[in-house]
Fold each of these.
Amino acid sequence: MIAGLFFFMTATIGFLRFPDFYTRMHATAKGDTLGTLLFVVGLALYTLHHGLHWFGIVNGIKLISIAVFWFLASPTATHALLRSALESDLVPWTKDGKVMLTWPPKRKTK
């Protein structure tokens, strides 16, 4: 659980320190996904510390299923948010302010 809290903390620092939407989303997506996974797996192991009994096993299975769902859903949601930001012409930050890419990409005509 401490490792999960560490990743939550680093994601928060990345959110506060990075310059634009894209880098902030990258930091929070990676940190939140791994932090949640580690924290929930830690909680599942904590429910089993008194021994293997029915209540602990059921709660552990529920917590692991939450972790698996979060591990699959969080990157998908982050991708959707970043794609919608790109399609709404939110330009990524650069030091010199030049546009690094154009969207939508121009198609080659024959």
Amino acid sequence: MVFLTCLLSALLLVFSFPQTECSILAWAALVPLFSILDGQKPWRAFRRAYLCGFLFFAAAIGWFVYVTYIGAFLLVAFLSLYFALFGVIFIYFQRLAVVPRIFVLSSAWVALEFIRDHFLTGFGWVMLGHSQFKNLWLIQIADMTGVYGVSFLVVLVNLLIFENWRARSLLLKANIIVLALLSAVLVYGYSVIAHQGNYQTIRVGVVQPNIPLAVDWDESRKPWIVDRNIQLTRQLRAQKPDLIVWPETSLPGVISDSPDLTGEIRANAARLATPILIGSIAQDGDRYYNSAFLIGADGQMLGRYDKIHLVPFGEYLPLRPVLGWVNKFIDLDDFTPGKTYKIFSLAPLSPKFAVLICFEDTLGYLRRHFARAGADFFVNMTNDAWFGDTKAPFLHLQSAVFGCVENHRSLARAANTGVSALVDPWGRIIAAVSNGNGKKILVNGTAFGELPLVHELTFYTKYGDVFTYLCFLCILVAGIIP
């Protein structure tokens, strides 16, 4: 019975995310879990919540096995601890009255998501709030609270449903307070969406070549890969974009090892009179960087950004002195992280942009830093070919959408196999690469859109995770007051 109940909660959570995207399920998905935690001893609650977390993460991020089996297992086993800790906290605060209890427990969930997003380099995918990325009115609150505010509301409603069920009656006070809060958030979201100004725009095209991973590492296929990107780039000529974005490592290998191919790309940028942003590997001595290179409309190299936040178990081995034995299974050499928060500009007075490579566009601190540094819009180049036809590319997009809302910055995403898309500052996907049947991954093509440029800084951009710190404070106060 316990296993089936944990499985039910886990499945409801999984169905809230891609590719099913029944986001409404998230609002009640935790209720079965709460029912088997209620009244338990802390150790038993720990085990039950851990089981639910393990089932959820195994289904939601099981695609990580395409990178490494052992790394995937360790990641799932580790992330499940956050569910387990919540189970213990759930028991500890049962002494509180209903209204403070549901707010303290919602704060605890947010605190654990925040820690998960930052501890040991962080893993911020499949936050509960991400499941609501298409609910535009609801997610606008993220410009003050980040995605954590949306997670807070989802957990709060789950707890309210559970408390009503446990009391076998409607708890009038709790229901009124939660309904009023939720209504205020939706009214705020409506006002943000309804009162948008006339903004300057920039015309951006993105290229999705759909290069199989095996081919991407084939040295002999490099000319073919570059040619495919060039052919797709030429399809954007009629739209007259201000910038064309290629995916991560769209020029495979070390860029300095391919002067002929680099010259061909530069010649095409000059022929089209359009800047092209490409991905490749930079080498400085014995150090290698995952980098983005901007080629100007005259074919000249305008700048380079080196990826700052590397992927654990993908681009480096975390805690190498402790986990060095893992290298026997994955044979991983470490990239070097970049140090400079590079801001690109196409011309002295043109809009400025920041490049986020791979999963950097899911990192709230990095997006905020670039927005404060002067980026008028974001560009993400990624290669999710590692994960095949799975949830991963869609989960990646979900998280990236929140970066737009949090900072009111548009985003252009070029993904090798998808999802390549253009997102406005309020989280609307205004264009995406797809085939005639609406398939967005493992297809090639281009997308084009005019991205609005909002220059003002949001509360979240300026002040960061104030809401989350208030959640920590709420837990602390509730913990020390008898």
